[in-house]
Amino acid sequence: MIHFSFAISLHLQLHATMAAEFLNNFKIPDYILVPESSKVERFHECDDDPVVPDCPVLVFINSKSGGQLGGDLLLTYRALLNEKQVFDLGEHPPDKALITIYANLESLKKRGDQFAMKIIERLKLIVAGGDGTAGWLLGVVCDLKLSHPPAIATVPLGTGNNLPFAFGWGKKNPGTDQRSVEAFLDQVMKAKEMKIDNWHILMRMRTPKEGSCDPIPPLELPHSLHAFHRVSEADELNMDGYLTFRGGFWNYFSMGMDAQVSYAFHSERKLNPEKFKNQLVNQTTYAKLGCTQGWFFAPLIHPASRNIAQLTKVKFMQKPGQWQDLYIPPSIRSIVCLNLPSFSGGFNPWGTPNRKKQHDRDLTAPYVDDGLIEVVGFRNAWHGLVLLAPKGHGTRLAQAHRIRFEFCKGGADHTFMRMDGEPWKQPLPVDDDTVVVEISHHGQVNMLATHICKSQSMYDPSSPHHDNEEDDSDGEVEEDSLAEEFRKFGAADTFRIPDEVDISELS
């Protein structure tokens, strides 16, 4: 019995030792994280040649995401790593944390600190939350123009989780116990790096002559739009007599009936949050709203004046400086500008054009790092159901570096828009004014992807490529001129979630 107890004790000690050695691959010492740390001298004195972690990480967690899961995950990471390298986004905005740590790293680098230099080269970021939280961190990293931008892994803690799904991290909320976190860290260490395009969105409308200076109540805009302030008078995008908003997205921008149904769902959830605690209930409610809003019976219920072609003129740019008119079939009631192959529960609306379409229409696979955005149209919800088929896709309209929507006075006084899962009701001109929404490429960030990654890179030979697929679309596309680069993306403000917004509701 004594020998058995000794064996168990030895086994536990061995496991603890192995776990500690494994976690050392990710830990960062205080002197890297805290400027002018008192531990600098002691760190160097106790080890003339300290071992640099193979995969040092900074962890950012939305503690309010996933119900109790965010808070539990925060506690586990802090117990396993240096708690100073784990940040609660409710208390520490990522831009301030990254600016502080990178300034310290650069200072140490200038002093010839080899350890700090290797930390910069190997550093990775982990963000746990919904797509809104992940987009916040991605926007900050894109905006800060760090000397050696770290790659980012995403932990799915939201509702949609399109970003984690697109890069192989799954859609289901993860476990929060030690073993689950260690398994995730192991995946991070083995993950490959992949770049992802970032898209800037500009919205411009005339300043109202009467009433509020804000034509849209702030909380009706997605956080990546209402959190950034209108551009200043010094901004080159500013136009006298107009309100100009700017923001960005990583997954998609959509307009029309899909956004209308999403808006109805979010409005219901805002009014009765207690009814939306169960994922199955949420999906059922969404389907019901799709029926009541007419999305399934659009030809009978939906007025033709709300169809995309009647609402807006669309121009796109495939080559710099060459704007072209984009033909939108009259039956299209929803249009999606897609960056990632994950939309509405993980579907890929673009698919992969067959070789004939690639040759005749100059279409390519939906690479996430080619500087092109895929523009897809849908007639109704039944059309959307083709995505359930192995090679199903929407109506391919274009691939563009830049796309512009111009809304003039017409049959509708509003439409619905959605950006990375967050919808809003957009007023349209009632006089001779024009509302402009323009989307353009704005840099890239590095993502971490697992071996089951859904996204494709144009530079990675190992990216999955699919063969012949029938194409039902009819319409050509091209692109616009990329003049001067846009100014700063404004990520610190653009992706800052206001205090009055419950970030646990962001998906």
Automatic annotation (TrEMBL):
Residues 469-481 have a biased composition (Acidic residues). Pfam families: DAGK_acc, DAGK_cat. The keyword ATP-binding applies. GO terms for cellular component: membrane. SUPFAM superfamilies: NAD kinase/diacylglycerol kinase-like (SSF111331). The keyword Nucleotide-binding applies. Residues 52-205 form the DAGKc domain. Transmembrane segments: none annotated. Residues 456-481 are annotated as: Disordered. Residues 1-19 form the signal peptide. Keywords: ATP-binding, Kinase, Nucleotide-binding, Plant defense, Signal, Stress response, Transferase. It catalyses: a 1,2-diacyl-sn-glycerol + ATP = a 1,2-diacyl-sn-glycero-3-phosphate + ADP + H(+). Its EC number is 2.7.1.107. It is an enzyme of class 2 (transferase). One of its GO terms (biological process) is defense response. GO terms for molecular function: ATP binding; ATP-dependent diacylglycerol kinase activity. Belongs to the eukaryotic diacylglycerol kinase family. Monomer. Phosphorylates the second messenger diacylglycerol (DAG) to generate phosphatidic acid (PA), another important signaling molecule. PA is required for plant development and responses to abiotic stress and pathogen attack. May be involved in the accumulation of PA during cold stress. This is Diacylglycerol kinase. It comes from Vicia faba (Broad bean).
